[in-house]
Amino acid sequence: MVGVPTYFKDRRISLYLLAFLLTIASGCATWIYQVVGAFDKGIQYYDIVISDWMINYQGGFVRRGLVGELLYQIYEIRPYCLPYVIIVLYHIGFAALTLTLIRMFRRRGWSCYLLPFPILLFYNFAGPGFLSCRRDSIVLCLTCAIFYCYRNMVRRPAIWGYVCLMALSVLIVLTHEASFFFTFPILMLHTLMRWYRTGLGVVMSAGKTFLFWFPIFVVMVLVYVFNGNEDVTKVIWASWNDCMQRYPTSRGAEMGLNEIGVGVRFLEKDIWYALSLHTGIVWKSPFLRVIPIAIVNVYVFAALFYLLTRLNTISLFTSKSVSVNSTILGGVFMIQFAAVFPLFGFLSCDMWRTIPYLTISTLFFYYFFDDTTALPRFCYSLSGRIQCGIDKSRFLTKRIVYFMVLVTLPVFMISDVNGMFPFIPYHVKEHFREYLSMLLWS
Q1: Within 10 A of 251 (CB to CB), how many other CB atoms are there?
Q2: Is 287 helix (H, G, I), strand (E, B) or coil?
Q3: Which of 396, 390, 328 is nearest to 362 (CA)?
Q4: Which end of the chain is more exposed for a tag (fewer CB within 10 A), N or C?
């Protein structure tokens, strides 16, 4: 019976279906809880989830300032309540990312089972705080658009295609510089391999690749040089005084005029401060105060490789199921992991954000370039050996094992158990957090 849900024919699937539905329900409950709480206590301009969007160019060119500058110029034309517009933009970005992924999965016949779980979409909708993923959904949508434009330009080279690709590339880097790591290294490697396979040597291929992506290197240098300072943050914050006075969104909103927002204040810090801060949070934090954090890190990324490359392991429907080439997908994952690695514990400590960067961008690239000529052969060779080992394992090929790895993966913060069991609402786990800590750590 083609198209009939599997759970009608196999009672064992009820466990997986129940977890799937409860995870969606948990995300919705967490979102409602956060929305009610945010509007009850008031949305603070100086909170990082709002102030991060307020960075603009009024104090001069600075990283992450493009979106804030556009919002500021629109405000100058027609005043509006900035926090509410940010809330709308956040959810539009999430809806666009969700629809993009659903369309991709349906067109390729992939199982959509992973979509609502933390390794993909969960925290973009129901993060540990209201709007906690900030502009991530919008940035990931731009990543997909860049991969699409690049694929089309490879197939049909044209100057307008290159201009469009570079425009989107500059846009995404000026929106959030971290996007460089999960968007461009793999595209640059693909460009290098294309030139190399035409018979050019490694040096000539690298030179042509550098020239092709030269605008992005220039923008990244500018972003690094114009990182911001204390004077710039004061000018940026003062530029929004009229908005904060005209549209107070909380009791005691006058605090926003005297205290520079956290997101803007980070412009005062240099890269060495970020390295020390994030390294101290992630790599020195114990997990359950028993297991060394390095061991947990290895497990998390090995589990991500396993879950993502075998995404059709649990499928709620049997119609038109298309197998995934785990070898190719694994090779793409390895390249993306190497490219995104600086974000894990050095340039960022928000694991609930950086892991979706890795997994979603991997799926985007695989969707557009699912052939063995896209990347170096050693990537596919290593991935193939790992997949053969998984296939020979009676343990790892079991659906229940896959399920348990998925629901117990500590995606939230590696040093925190709240990322486990996403089908339990976050605020419920938060209420029992201290009790669990005492129970597990005593």
Answers
A1: 9
A2: strand
A3: 328
A4: C
Distances (CA, A) of 295 to 17, 153, 253, 336: 31, 42, 45, 21
321, 112 in Cβ contact below 8 A? no
- Of the candidates 325, 288, 296, the one whose C-alpha atom is nearest the C-alpha of residue 309 is 325
Interior angle at CA 431, CA 427 and CA 437, nearest 5: 120
Asked whether 423 and 23 are in contact (CB, 8 A), the reply is yes
Q: How far apart are CA 349 and CA 278, in angstroms?
A: 5
Rounded distance between C-alpha atoms, residue 18 and residue 377, angstroms: 40
291 φ, ψ (degrees, to nearest 5) = -90, 125
Q: List CB contacts of 94: < 8 A, sequence separation 6 or more.
A: 121, 124, 125, 137
**Predicted confidence pLDDT, tens digits, the chain (442 residues):** 334 344 334 445 578 889 999 999 988 888 888 888 777 777 888 888 889 999 999 989 998 899 999 999 999 999 999 999 999 999 999 999 999 999 999 999 899 999 999 899 888 888 777 788 889 999 999 999 999 999 999 999 899 999 999 999 999 999 999 999 999 999 999 999 999 988 888 899 999 999 999 999 999 999 988 888 888 898 999 999 999 888 887 654 545 556 777 778 777 766 666 666 666 556 555 555 566 667 777 888 999 999 999 999 988 765 455 678 999 999 999 999 999 988 876 666 677 788 899 999 999 999 999 877 778 888 889 999 999 999 998 899 999 999 999 998 877 654 455 678 888 887 777 776 666 556 555 4
CB 196 within 8 A of CB 205: yes
Burial code (b: 16+ CB inside 10 Å, e: under 16) for 207-219 equals ebbeebbeebeeb
Q: Are 153 and 168 in contact (CB under 8 A)?
A: no
Distances (CA, A) of 378 to 113, 247, 276, 279: 30, 57, 34, 31
By the 8 A CB rule, do 311 and 324 touch?
A: yes
Query: Which residue, among 418, 434, 436, has the nearest Cα to 426 in the 3D structure?
Result: 418
Instruction: Give the Cα separation of 47 and 49 in Å (integer).
Output: 6
The answer to whether residues 29 and 429 touch, using CB atoms and an 8 Å cutoff, is: no
Q: What is the DSSP letter of 198?
A: T
CA distance 362 to 336: 6
Nearest one of 232, 217, 231, 214 to 62, comparing CA atoms: 232
Query: Are 62 and 232 spatial neighbours (Cβ–Cβ below 8 Å)?
Result: yes
Rounded distance between C-alpha atoms, residue 70 and residue 54, angstroms: 10
